[in-house]
Write a structure and sequence with these properties.
alpha/beta
């Protein structure tokens, strides 16, 4: 096992190796290294940070800030400003979910309160809420943390299609049409129902405006209908935070044929870290995440997969060893041990999502 001091000696070499280069050297030498150690070792020593890039396709941090009346500095968050500062380059899709206890109208009004509060938090720290490709590229060029705004549960439209344009103008670039049950949009994973007539109209408007449709939470029928509509406008779909049904037949997980349909559309799948979706229980290990990643990679290749961790959206139920985004290096290390190359891991952790958003986010 490499010691903390030996890892640090690598950092002080003239070539300043990246996080992935350090892992590569360690594994090439045949030495074992704790992923959790790699996640924490840098910030446990004064002045050192994790050298790593991450693009997370789904987090619920914005909702948590408003719901609990806290700031991005709060240490109880799964993602906070201290953890974000540990990354070389950091992006996340900030999904604003409609609270299941709110009416459609209340949830719509609350969406803007949550969005504005989160934007204020980001701006005060120099983070950028990205609305277009130029914003995304600027964040990468200047190592500025960036967020993309998403709606999770389009029941907030309440049957009013004009709201889609309003949401788009407010900065929404991704919409997850369903969350649970049935709504004005159609059936979620808890239903066998497909899209309503309004849901089909809304999906066409998403595509017309260039809003990316996320099939996570959709029923199988709704997912195929959403995909067909998006494709008819030349738009891809994504599954931002979904696991493999073949490994855990939970209704929230996506089947292999859906995984293939997302890839065929030009989209990507973000694997989440919620134990119930990984194993069907409230307990999961990092190895369970790697197996879902491996299954989807085997199905569609490493170019169509990313991470959609679902941080700040899982309550107290986390995969063991992935309780915070600061632990994410442990997953990188586990994938290396599973046989993934560092190049494949870099694609999964960052490049695939970055390339996708750089090509498809609407101006």
């Amino acid at each position: 096992m490499y010691s903390t001091s030996s890892i640090f000696r690598m950092l002080f070499t003239d070539d300043k190796p990246s996080f992935s280069d350090i892992l590569k050297r360690l594994h090439k030498s045949g030495n074992k290294v704790s992923g959790k150690l790699m996640s924490f070792v840098f910030r446990q020593q004064k002045g050192m940070v994790i050298i790593m890039k991450l693009f997370d396709l789904h987090c619920d941090t914005a909702f948590e800030l408003e719901d609990r009346n806290i700031t991005l500095s709060d240490e109880t968050l799964d993602i906070n400003d201290r953890m974000i500062s540990d990354f070389d380059t950091f992006f996340a899709v900030s999904a604003i979910c409609a609270d299941e206890h709110d009416t459609d109208e209340t949830a719509y009004e609350r969406f803007f309160k949550i969005k504005d509060n989160f934007k204020s938090e980001c701006c005060s720290r120099g983070y950028l809420v990205c609305k277009n490709i130029s914003d995304i590229k600027a964040c990468r060029e200047h190592n500025t943390p960036g967020f993309i705004t998403a709606v999770e549960d389009a029941r907030i439209l309440a049957g009013k299609s004009e709201r889609i344009q309003i949401l788009f103008e407010s900065g929404v670039r991704i919409i997850t049409p369903m969350w649970g049950g049935e709504s004005c949009i159609g059936g979620s994973h808890e239903s066998e129902r497909g899209l309503t007539n309004f849901g089909k109209e809304a999906a066409r408007e998403f595509a017309r405006l260039g809003i990316i449709t996320d099939i996570s939470h959709a029923s199988e029928r709704s997912a195929y209908e959403l995909t067909d509509i998006a494709l008819s406008y030349g738009m891809p779909v994504i599954a931002s935070h979904s696991c493999a049904f073949a490994l855990n037949p939970h209704s929230r997980n996506i089947r292999d044929r859906q995984i293939e349909a997302v890839k065929a559309s030009g989209g990507i799948i973000g694997v989440n870290t919620y134990p119930i979706h990984l194993t069907g229980t409230e307990h999961a290990e990092i190895g369970d995440v790697t197996e879902h990643i491996a299954h989807i990679t085997d199905a569609v290749g490493a170019e169509s997969i990313a991470l959609g961790c679902d941080f700040d959206g899982m309550g107290a139920c986390h995969t063991s060893g992935l309780e915070k985004i600061s632990c994410i290096g442990a997953l990188y290390d586990a994938l290396i041990r599973r046989g993934f190359s560092s190049e494949m891991c870099d694609r999964i952790f960052f490049e695939n999502a970055y390339n996708f958003m750089s090509a498809h986010i609407a101006d």
